[in-house]
Inverse folding.
């Protein structure tokens, strides 16, 4: 997946601001490049799980992304104290939103955040290469 450095920076900033809870959001893009991070609220306000607030999901997916001439290419969330890998909860949630790339930001080491990308399907996660452009 191709991604702008500004998008990675925004994901890390959002994760740090929402810690100790998980943050979440959507990623818009064009021409195969992730270009914009759209912050959303974690409906659960939890350090263990997330759900994009329904009104934020509607606003971003149906208005902000199309108005910017982008398409929805990924979603992101953070793991405040664990590694940047899908949990079983993440894998289960992916069944409701197939086809999206999942970006996970780990703050396990707060001084060295890690963002990784995954494709999740059929109860399994496959890591994707992140190419910063």
């Amino acid at each position: 997946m191709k991604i702008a450095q500004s998008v990675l920076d925004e994901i890390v900033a959002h994760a740090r601001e929402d810690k100790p809870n998980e943050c979440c959001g959507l990623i818009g893009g064009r021409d195969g490049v992730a270009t914009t991070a759209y912050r959303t609220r974690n409906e659960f306000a939890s350090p263990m799980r997330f759900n994009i607030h329904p009104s934020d999901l509607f606003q971003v997916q149906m208005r902000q992304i199309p108005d910017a001439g982008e398409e929805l290419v990924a979603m992101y969330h953070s793991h405040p104290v664990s590694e940047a890998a899908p949990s079983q909860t993440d894998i289960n949630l992916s069944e409701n939103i197939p086809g999206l790339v999942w970006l996970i930001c780990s703050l396990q080491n707060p001084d060295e955040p890690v963002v990784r990308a995954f494709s999740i399907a059929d109860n399994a996660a496959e890591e994707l290469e992140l190419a910063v452009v």
Remarks:
- The chain has one domain: 2-132.
- Strands lie at 2-3, 24-30, 33-40, 71-79, 101-106, 114-121, 124-128, 131-132.
- The CA atoms of residues 106 and 112 lie 9 Å apart.
